[in-house]
Amino acid sequence: MSVVLLVVIALPLLGAALLLAGQPAAGAGADGAGGRRAQWTGVAFSGATLALTVALAAGFDRDDARSMQFETDKVWASSLDLHFHVGIDGISLPLLVLTALLTFLVAVHSLGTVPAGGSTNAYLALVLVLEAGVLGTFAALDLILFFLFFEVVLIPMYFLIARWGTPGERGPAAFKFILYTLLGSAVMLLGFLLVQAHTGTFDITQLTVGAGDGMSRGVQITAFLAVALGLAVKVPMWPLHTWLPDAHTAAPTGGSVLLAGVLLKMGTYGLIRIAVPVLPEGAELFAPYLAAFGTVGIVYGSLVCLALLRSPDGDLKRVIAYSSVGHMGFALLGIATLTPQGINGALFVNIGHGLITGLLFFLAGAVKERSGSVLIGRIGGSLYARAPRLGGLLAFAAVAGLGLPGLAGFWGELLAMYGAYDPAAGLDRPLYRVLLAAAGIGTVLTAAYMLGIVRKVCAGPGLGAVSPVAAEPVARIEPLPDIGRVDVLAWGPLVVLTVVAGLWPASVLAVTDPAVRALLGGGS
Amino acid sequence: MTVAISPQGMPTASAHDSLSLVQDIDWAAVAPPLALAVAALVVLLADLFLAGPRKVWLAWISLGGLAAALVLLLPLNDGDTRATFCAPANPTTTPGCSYVVDDFTLVLQLVLIASAAVVVLLSMPMTAPRPWADERDVDSGVPGGEYHFLLLASATGAVTLVAARDLLTLVVALETLSLPAFALVGLRRDGRGGEAALKYFLMSVAATAVLLFGISLLYGATGTVYLDRVAAALTALDPRLETVAATGAALTLAGFAFKVAAVPFHFWVPDTYRGAPVPVAAYLSVVSKTAGFGGLLLVAGIALRPYAHVWGPALAVLAALTMTVGNLVAVRVATGSGDAVRLLAWSSIAQSGYVLVPFGTAAGEGADLSERLSASVAYLAVYAVMNLGAFAVVTAVGRDRPTGLLSDYRGLLRARPAPALAMAFFLLCLAGLPPGLMGLFAKVTVFQAVVAGGTGWLAVVMAVNVVIGLYYYLVWTALLFAPPVPGAPPAAEGTPEGPGTLGAAGALRVPMPFALAIAVAFVLGVVLSVAPQIVLQVLTVPGLLG
């Protein structure tokens, strides 16, 4: 059965290779038959990958979610002590399915619209390589292998932004993305090597059981600093987040969805899987800092969003990007409590944020396509009147994003804050209470800007009236194309899962909780 | 005299042998450089008898000599250490042998010979009148016979250098490597080649003088030229001689630092690479540099090991400077003049810095020094593949687009998908990012050595440098995939012209030897990315440096 996991990682790569080999001759338009074939190839391979991850989830032994399943362990380069060691437990399984789902939806979305910039084949091939990198990261159980898959996503994401992004801003944004995250992962690699130099192994499962054995407190602190710093760039943690708004704003819709939906999760996943259990003493020392920076991110992210909403050229995608900084702040806060509740909360934030922000970016892309602008001042408002279903859906996603109970955004934030109320023994309890209060204020601010989006974009006068918001002097409110068939296919699953995860949180928590407890239990 | 040396390095020669004044030579051990020397002479003679189109045979003879040398390496790879040209052992000293074939020698000889063969492939259209050469190559006017003779002679020096185990053989081999290289740089009959050669010559001669001075001081202090005896003498040195020995050590290392183009001994590199024919630049940046590092590894790792606490920190600073200066200037070249060969020159300086990094950890624990230095050997092997690959594509592209600017590479994917994809792969290998896994593994190896050695600051400097380096490699890679400039003449594709004719409107034709060179480097690169253990096994060879 373990071969299924290998196929899950290899299948997107195979699809990418086929797409690149089938590259139509230069000059053939993206709309030609070649482009159609590429779109269906992308859908087929990402769909097959999704089906296999669902099969993995079905075959996953839920009663034993704490231990690794579908494991493969082969020596790759013995001199480096590098093993091709992959496997999944309750922590990685939901993220694996989320990744396959979002990639599939991006491929489906490409059936309707392919961003201009290059050949359809190359676009979908890059998306598939990206998927393989993320899936590999969530399955890797060897530090070097984890690092390797972590790096695999860089080049495809760079090209997705640099070639298919918004003209004018994509070049610098793409460089900023790749240089920032590479610096992070290079520092992370140093931490991994330090761990190996003292423990003699790169194997994550062994290191988790060892829980810091063989490393002095000083080594653990140094290694944690390096690993967490590298991962914090990816999360992104305030103040290392500055690459993110530019990258999100410049990226094409599919790129933004994947960037927010799955790439950011690699950072929080790495903290949960590696930094905290492998380096417990380092984690204990730095947890308050992580929590503080996370909380600053929550408040800062929402304040920036509010400012962007007020500014005449606030960018809808930029608002969503900064909202990601805030949401990931909740994940950081949850992790930094070092409690099962907090870490479960962080994992739930990951899932919820992946679904909701993925949907928000899809919708922002749709609004941009239809109204011709992504600047809030120029979209023109009145989306309820111009495209009622699109407007309704945007309002739904915004409300889910503010953490309304009953939707997927709620449970993660609640659990993270619950963990902060009662952090692990040895952590400064009053500090966490203060942070909890600040995070609480952050949720209010989040609600303010999310509703602000609804007010500025969705609400407004009816059809035929003169637009009060649009920049043009006299602009009539005209109808926009509403949700099409492809859109229903691409967005429907996200809506359904947002509701399901909100009403039935146990669907995720029952899988993650045993694994989280096993992780925190470590050797003790 | 042939001395069989057991893996522990203890001599098993009888006392009778060691008193004999007539030396037996282990011909098998010296066969690879000998084959190259013979091939060099054959090329020189054959040049007299071959005329016109038949001069293409010169290149094939060159390749044949290199192939023979490769084959002659095979029987040496039996796990035993062979030593020849040995001084008689006496009770107070360790055995002194001038020429030793061990795992270290074999690995580097393999890299050197294979790299030289790729350079010969790259030189073919430039030196052969037919069937590949055409008016584009005639301009360069490089005489084939002399060119291949000099190349083989220089390669002989390189191959000997990594087997040398005494200071004098090292110097002689180094000069055998360098003297023909000056001529190679200047062989092109235009002003630029002459200027580049003169610059290279003057700097090199100065470095040789420094090196010889250093060696004479070391000899004066220790009374021996054999590397292992120098090490033994340095550990039990008369305190009054310590200043002399330390000065000698510093000057010797400075001489080698010039060869490997370490900052601040790097000034000759960009101008020399730019002025030389591109295949010669490839030769200098791979073969000459690998041999130079071989010498540095031998001198630092064996002879001067007792002074590791002195040269370790010094070389750490040198490594940090080398990669930082190399990368920063490369970024300036990429954003400024955009000269492809100059960019590769600065990039190769930066890469030298990465190779130097394991040296910088030497001050740590002395016991497993050779284990850490073997990371440099692994990096050199990988560097040879990726850098030669990049130079091969630059040679091929430069033939049709002689401006040699990065902008020539815009839209190369449309015009020539295969070389463009290969170039992207080599550049990402040099940057150390997937899919260039080979380069990534090499960098991880160096990082591992430096973290194990406990030189944290150097690791951080290198991490920052990897990020800086990514910038210009990525600029170049992105150009390959960028759409062609609107308004530029469309690249003519599939025009029914024979090989070796000028393609219309800048279309790129890749002659067979170039295609072969690129393919060899690409296949090797892919193989080493999938199965890095092939190279990385040098890390776990016990006692790679004796």
UniProtKB/TrEMBL annotation, chain A:
Keyword Oxidoreductase annotated: yes
Instruction: Please report the stretch or stretches of sequence annotated as the NADH:quinone oxidoreductase/Mrp antiporter transmembrane domain.
Output: 140-421
The keyword Transmembrane helix belongs to this UniProt entry's keyword annotation: yes
Q: Give compartment(s).
A: Endomembrane system; Membrane
Its BP terms in the Gene Ontology are:
ATP synthesis coupled electron transport; electron transport coupled proton transport
Report which superkingdom the organism of origin falls in. Bacteria
Write down the Pfam families for this protein, in alphabetical order.
Answer: Proton_antipo_M
Enumerate the transmembrane spans.
40-60, 93-112, 132-161, 173-195, 215-235, 256-276, 288-309, 321-339, 345-367, 388-411, 431-451
Q: Give the EC number.
A: 1.6.5.-
Topological relation to the membrane, as annotated? Multi-pass membrane protein
MF (Gene Ontology) = NADH dehydrogenase (ubiquinone) activity; NADH dehydrogenase activity; ubiquinone binding
Among InterPro entries, the record links this protein to: NADH_Q_OxRdtase_chainM/4, NADH_UbQ_OxRdtase, ND/Mrp_TM
Its keywords, alphabetically, are: Membrane, Oxidoreductase, Transmembrane, Transmembrane helix
- What is one term from the GO cellular component aspect held by the record? membrane
PANTHER family assigned to the protein according to its UniProt record, in alphabetical order: NADH-UBIQUINONE OXIDOREDUCTASE CHAIN 4 (PTHR43507:SF1)
Q: Which family does it belong to?
A: Belongs to the complex I subunit 4 family.
- NCBIfam families per record: NDH_I_M
Q: How is this protein named in the record?
A: NADH-quinone oxidoreductase subunit M
Species of the source: Yinghuangia soli
Automatic annotation (TrEMBL), chain B:
What EC number(s) is this enzyme filed under? 7.1.1.-
| Gene Ontology molecular functions | NADH dehydrogenase (quinone) (non-electrogenic) activity; NADH dehydrogenase (ubiquinone) activity; quinone binding
Gene Ontology biological process terms from the UniProt entry: ATP synthesis coupled electron transport
Location in the cell reads: Cell membrane; Endomembrane system; Membrane
| GO cellular component terms, semicolon-separated | endomembrane system; plasma membrane
* Residues of the NADH:quinone oxidoreductase/Mrp antiporter transmembrane domain: 164-468
Looking up Pfam families in the UniProt record yields: Proton_antipo_M
Q: How does it sit in the membrane?
A: Multi-pass membrane protein
- Per the record, the domain of life is Bacteria
Q: What does it catalyze?
A: a quinone + NADH + 5 H(+)(in) = a quinol + NAD(+) + 4 H(+)(out)
Kindly state which keywords UniProt assigns to this record, in alphabetical order. Answer: Cell membrane, Membrane, NAD, Quinone, Translocase, Transmembrane, Transmembrane helix, Transport
| Transmembrane spans | 27-50, 57-76, 106-126, 147-164, 170-188, 200-221, 244-268, 280-304, 310-331, 343-364, 376-397, 418-442, 454-474, 514-536
Q: Which HAMAP family match?
A: NDH1_NuoN_1
Q: What does this protein do?
A: NDH-1 shuttles electrons from NADH, via FMN and iron-sulfur (Fe-S) centers, to quinones in the respiratory chain. The immediate electron acceptor for the enzyme in this species is believed to be a menaquinone. Couples the redox reaction to proton translocation (for every two electrons transferred, four hydrogen ions are translocated across the cytoplasmic membrane), and thus conserves the redox energy in a proton gradient.
Entry-linked PANTHER family = NADH DEHYDROGENASE
Assembly and interactions? Answer: NDH-1 is composed of 14 different subunits. Subunits NuoA, H, J, K, L, M, N constitute the membrane sector of the complex.
Family of the protein in this entry: Belongs to the complex I subunit 2 family.
**Protein name as it appears in the record:** NADH-quinone oxidoreductase subunit N
Q: Which organism is it from?
A: Yinghuangia soli
